[in-house]
Amino acid sequence: MNLHDRIYVAGHKGLVGSAILRALEAQGYNNLICRTRSELDLRDRGQVSRFFEQNAIDYVFLAAAKVGGIAANNDYPADFIRDNLLIQTNVIDAAYRANVTKLMFLGSTCIYPKLAPQPLKEEYLLSGDLEPTNKPYAIAKIAGINMCQSYNRQHGTSFISVMPTNMYGPNDNFDLQTSHVLPALLRKFHEAKELGAPTVEVWGSGTPKREFLHADDLAEACIFLMKHYEDSEIVNVGVGEDISIKELAEMIKTIVGYEGEIVFNASIPDGTPRKLVDVSKINGLGWQAQISLETGLRSVYEAFQKEYLIKQ
Ligand code: GDP
Fold it and tell me: Any idea which positions bind NADP(+) (predicted)?
């Protein structure tokens, strides 16, 4: 990938896409192509084909997806499977037809079976039943992985698939109904502190464990893999450590400086008990995450206070 190559970042307004865009800019790539949702609806095959025909794109980071936390996935399963299948099918197929040099498909660790051994090795894909709360999303992502592999086999394309663990960072979704746990808890503890509320509700039992990767680390990993990884097999990206939701809540409580109590609402689903990824493959290739959870949380909380609250 050369500095003047035409690189399309699909989903550049989101958590992952915006981080990839920032990292590419910082590394001096000077031909970056982005389209907002209103300029290009990736669910529309005709629009996507025309966009690729007209833009002579060399590299694609496919970070556009319909994403959300446990409640959104549970409440809108049809939207999650439809939008993701449409977006990825349109982009992958148009990229092949337009002869792009290389495409990276961003997946998720929810593609792994609910009760797979931990840490999750890449080879556990399709070895057991999925977690029901995000199965439609996971099946769309598994279809995307297989589509990249199948195009490589049938058409000789160079399409690679990367599976990041749970992510956080700037430009995250802080809406309490649709967000993931980390931004939700930052917001809940912040608001409880501001209002002097005696308790903060944390969903589920607090016992599930999750691994959290800063989007800036993921972006570095994506650029690294785009340059150095050629295989059709998936690659995990993570930090190699996880913590319980209870520990996360306590860490956020301390960072925010909230002094009330944490209350667990066990009537809300826990989702998958654990999804720690095995990072030996990417570490072996020469890449490692750099941002500790504590450092990342402090910087996201600072940005949340500065940017998000002002926009409200
Ligand atoms: P998941 O990793 O796909 O399960 O998605 P989430 O990030 O939404 O949820 C992770 C875990 O955090 C689940 O066990 C949730 O029940 C729990 N959780 C606790 N409080 C919250 C909250 O306020 N919002 C969300 N989204 N999850 C929460």
Answer: 11-17, 106-109, 141, 180
Q: How far apart are CA 26 and CA 28, in angstroms?
A: 5
Query: Could you report the average pLDDT of every consecutive run of 10 residues in the chain (312 residues)?
Result: 98 96 98 98 98 98 95 94 98 98 97 95 97 95 98 98 96 91 96 96 97 98 98 97 98 97 96 94 98 97 82 58
Give the Å distance between the CA of 127 and the centre of ligand 1: 24
Which one is catalytic: 8, 96, 137, 301? 137
Q: Are strands 209-210 and 243-244 parallel, antiparallel or unpaired?
A: antiparallel
Tokens of 189: 């503890």
Instruction: Dig out the tokens for 1 from the structure.
Output: 């990938």
Distance in angstroms (rounded) separating the CA atoms of residues 92 and 276: 28
Across-strand partners of 73? none
DSSP 238-291: --S--EEHHHHHHHHHHHHT--SEEEEETTS---SSB-PBP-HHHHHHT-----
For residues 140 and 110, is the Cβ–Cβ distance under 8 A? no
Q: How far apart, in whole angstroms, are the C-alpha atoms of residue 303 and residue 270?
A: 28
Give residue 86's pLDDT. Answer: 98
Written as six digits, the tokens of 107 are 């997946």
**Residue ranges lining ligand 1, Cβ < 6 Å:** 69-70, 110, 134, 166, 179-181, 184-185, 202-204, 208, 210, 245, 268, 270-271
Give me the pLDDT at residue 311, please: 60
Instruction: In whole angstroms, give the CA distance from residue 262 to residue 189.
Output: 9
pTM of structure: 0.94
User: With b meaning 16 or more CB within 10 Å and e meaning fewer, what string describes 41-67?
Assistant: ebbeeebbeebbeeeebbbbbbbbbbb
Phi/psi of residue 207, nearest 5 degrees: -85, -20
Closest ligand 1 atom to Cα of 185: 23
